[in-house]
Specification:
Blueprint (H helix, E strand, L loop, with lengths): L1 H15 L8 H12 L3 H14 L4 E7 L5 E6 L9 H4 L11 H4 L11 H7 L2 E7 L6 E7 L2 E9 L4 E7 L6 H5 L4 H18 L4 E6 L2 E6 L5 H12 L1 H5 L1 E10 L2 E10 L11 E5 L2 E2 L3 H11 L11 E6 L5 E2 L10 E2 L2 H17 L3 H9 L66 H10 L20 E6 L3 E5 L3 E6 H20 L3 E11 L2 H9 L1 H6 L3 E6 L2 E8 L7 H15 L4 H17 L9 H13 L13 E5 H7 L5
Parallel strand pairs: 1-7, 11-13
Antiparallel strand pairs: 1-2, 2-6, 3-4, 3-6, 4-5, 7-8, 9-10, 10-13, 11-12, 14-15, 16-17, 17-18, 18-22, 19-21, 20-21
Bound molecules: adenosine-5'-diphosphate and magnesium ion (MG).
Amino acid sequence: MEILEQQSEKIQEKSQAGKISILSPRLANQIAAGEVVERPASTIKELLENSIDAGATQIFIDIEQGGTKLIRVRDNGAGIFKDDLVLSLERHATSKIKELDDLEGVSSLGFRGEALASIASVSRLTLVSSTMEGGEGWSVRAEGQNMDAVVKLAAHGRGTTVEVRDLFFNTPARRKFLRTEKTEFSHLEEVVKRLALSHMFIGFQLNHNQRTVLSLKAASSQIDIERRVASICGPAFMENALSVEMNVAAEDGNLALSGWMGLPTFSRSQSDLQYFFVNGRMVRDRVVNHAVRKAYKDVLYHGRHPAYVLFLSLNPKTVDVNVHPTKHEVRFRNNREVHDFLYRSLYRAIADVRPGDEVNALASASSNISDMAPKQGSMPLTSPPEQAPLAETLVYSETLAQPDQQTGHFNAHSGQAYARGNSGHSSLNVAEQLAGYKNLHPDSSGINTESDAEIPPLGFALAQLKGIYILAENKEGLVVVDAHAAHERITYENMKCAYQAQGIQAQPLLVPVNIVVSTKEADCAENQYEVFNALGFQLERMGPESIMVRQVPALLRDSDVESLVRDVLSDLIAHGSSDRIQAAMNEVLSTMACHGSVRANRQLSIPEMNALLRDMERTERSGQCNHGRPTWTVQTLEELDRLFLRGR
Ligand code: ADP
Ligand code: MG
């Protein structure tokens, strides 16, 4: 009884306290600050974006104690007029947009006019600025609740300095969420790096506790740009990256993608080396992630993450940047178009890596990375890779799995054909092999064994090591190939081509599978009937919440049809597209390729090895096996010389 009374008293208390009043502007700012200023890293992001928007070409950053004691940003940008100084600290005060229409196509990083107000409300902030070179500067201070609106004369060159001391000194709850100095600083440093990546022509210097941590000079050439990427992402990234440069005309203006994508063999265990910028703004976006993952899918080990630094530019009117207070998310007006453009560009770039490219790239080091750039312009994306002319395929090609005409299934165990290879040829020298090679290439001009240019990228086989590795000589030096991995990749790519060429064979199920789904999913299945059909599935709606699978692609007859269909439906609902069926088929093909490929410890003859090398040169993605491991490497003569301390 007593308890009941207590409760009812409490309820009364609460209901009496329901008087509404307007929050003071300061309190409103402090509450709002939570959205923008979460920690030192988010503070530096806002300050740097302001400097960039002001057209700065040099930015100095001083940090103390991970940013909790001091964050100071000095730039040489346009500065703030004396009369605007006080206003700039007010909420909803901005010089970047004036009316709603301006929001449609913002080109500045900021536009919400709330960063300085928010930061000022939770710290001790001083703003000093000048709009004239050698002229006088003016300062204004704010300390949490109180703004010292007095504008004072201060010495300052053209540009602005914002000094933020004692972040969250008046909001203990926030302060409690801060991590160690080291952690906060590493977050902050990451923000600086991102902005430095997307603004190559601005110099950045970052000091922590009076020590210089980053010093990046403003870039004035392609080399400078590459150097900056290397110093931010590590030199290994640049050495293992393809430069990407793609441009297509779209309805609302061009779509352009540029930057660098790590080779599949340079994958990482974490997604920590992924930078994607949309019109210069770093974003994390589902559409983008999906497209990138899809492009790398076939060549990455499960659970590995690609590395990339990519810049997408498109008509600002087709991207909404005002989706999130920190502007980390964007919304594309045409998701599908952006997704497909990204996917195709990246997929093409990966597919275009053949041994020839890589040998050149390795030989001429990272400065030549851009030579590997896929060609600009239209991309024939759906056509299967060229099939090799028969004469060139030698013994080895007999072993490629051929689809069985009757059943449409692959004979995955055709590896025995290797045994038929002529193992009588044991060790031909390179000159002899070159002569043989030339005979197969009647169009090539007179045989000149001296000329390096005539040696194919992966060279000629010398021997096989331990039944596993093929040793070959090319113009750079020694090539080592993992025969099984390489063969597996080639078999897989060939199977995919053959499979695509002959069309998908469907197979009716003896016992159709009934699946209970949501109404939404059943609707989707009904609407996307054609999509399923094209992939070899036949679905039928049986009721408001049930569908029946009557037919599946022959290749997938032994897989878990029900969960595959479910997953595809949920993809279709979430993204409007799904590649799961294709992925499931590729998986089956890949397993078959693996079983059908040269096992380790099989002796190969020299012509067999050469045939494999030639096939690698013309197969897409042959630089890595189906699991993303490399298939070959080269040891240049210089490297060997160095190894043996042999001066030349
Ligand atoms: P926003 O960037 O969204 O406009 P802010 O609160 O970050 O809002 O900044 C308010 C205004 O103060 C800006 O619109 C700009 O006019 C001015 N400002 C802030 N920082 C700088 C700077 N470093 N250089 C020049 N002007 C600045
Ligand atoms: Mg701003």
